[in-house]
């Protein structure tokens, strides 16, 4: 369950029973070519095995995960940090339009809520709460992705991490999580073990 559950969720599309087999795939908005490539390799086999991919529709790793799931014919859930009727970022309009037919867009805030900074950190508990396992591709030490990892651990979820370059700040958070006991993710098989 979700600690501090939202009193209600606004849903565009549908959450269906098969979505209980869900994995969050999240990471840096300023993703590297490596992070984008790994996400494109991880997600299709998960989708092919009936795993619903959950993410936050942000640029970078999140939007790449949604696109890879859709391209593979899988389901995906996008948890917004805005009202259900506000597409943010605007460059994700294709996802906003396509996801409801093959998953759902979800938000806990009232329709019309713009992208306010205080809305994004709390939405991360919903991303992890909808997932059995949380996979982090790239993250700085202090980031929304690191917040999601903390929520996942508090919720008793398994946290997997794609190891990153030791000399990149974008990998400092992921590599730190590995040191703290997250399991390493090298392929979809590593995720399916949980």
Question: Keyphrases for this structure?
Answer:
194 residues, alpha/beta, eight-stranded mixed sheet, 7 helices
Q: Ranges with pLDDT <50 over ≥5 residues? A: none
Structural class: alpha/beta
Largest β sheet strand count, sense and barrel closure:
8 strands, mixed
N-to-C series of helices and strands: EEHEHEHEHEHEHEH
Strand line-up of the largest beta sheet: 1-5-4-3-2-6-7-8
Q: So how many helices?
A: 7
Task: Write down how many β-strands occur, each being a DSSP E stretch of 2 or more residues.
Answer: 8
CA radius of gyration: 15 Å
Question: Could you please describe the fold and organization of this structure?
Answer:
- The chain has helices spanning 33-48, 61-71, 93-98, 120-129, 144-154, 172-179, 188-192; strands spanning 10-13, 22-26, 52-55, 76-79, 103-107, 133-136, 158-161, 183-184.
- It is α/β, with parallel strands linked by helices and 194 residues long.
- Helix content is 35%, strand content 16%.
- Helix 1 (33-48) packs parallel to helix 2 (61-71) and helix 4 crosses helix 5 (144-154).
- It has an eight-stranded mixed sheet, sandwiched between helices.
- The longest helix has 16 residues, at 33-48.
- The two termini are 17 Å apart.
- It is built from seven helices and eight strands.
Helix and strand layout, with pairings?
Elements: E1 10-13, E2 22-26, H1 33-48, E3 52-55, H2 61-71, E4 76-79, H3 93-98, E5 103-107, H4 120-129, E6 133-136, H5 144-154, E7 158-161, H6 172-179, E8 183-184, H7 188-192
Parallel strand pairs: 2-3, 2-6, 3-4, 4-5, 6-7, 7-8
Antiparallel strand pairs: 1-5
């Amino acid at each position: 369950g979700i600690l501090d559950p939202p009193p209600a969720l606004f849903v565009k599309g549908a959450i269906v029973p098969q979505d209980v087999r869900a994995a969050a795939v999240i990471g840096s908005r300023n993703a590297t070519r490596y992070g984008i490539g790994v996400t494109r390799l991880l997600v299709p086999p998960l989708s092919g095995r009936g795993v619903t991919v959950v993410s936050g529709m942000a640029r970078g790793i999140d939007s790449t995960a949604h696109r890879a799931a859709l391209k593979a014919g899988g389901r995906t859930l996008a948890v917004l940090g805005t009202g259900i009727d506000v597409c943010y970022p605007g460059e994700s309009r294709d996802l906003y339009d396509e996801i409801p037919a093959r998953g759902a867009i979800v938000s806990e805030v009232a329709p019309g809520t713009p992208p306010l900074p205080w809305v994004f950190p709390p939405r991360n508990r919903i991303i992890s709460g909808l997932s059995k396992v949380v996979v982090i591709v790239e993250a700085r030490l202090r980031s929304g992705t690191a917040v999601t990892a903390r929520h996942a651990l508090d919720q008793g979820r398994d946290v997997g991490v794609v190891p990153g370059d030791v000399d990149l700040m974008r990998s400092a958070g992921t590599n730190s999580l590995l040191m703290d006991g997250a399991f390493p993710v090298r392929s979809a098989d590593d995720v399916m073990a949980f």
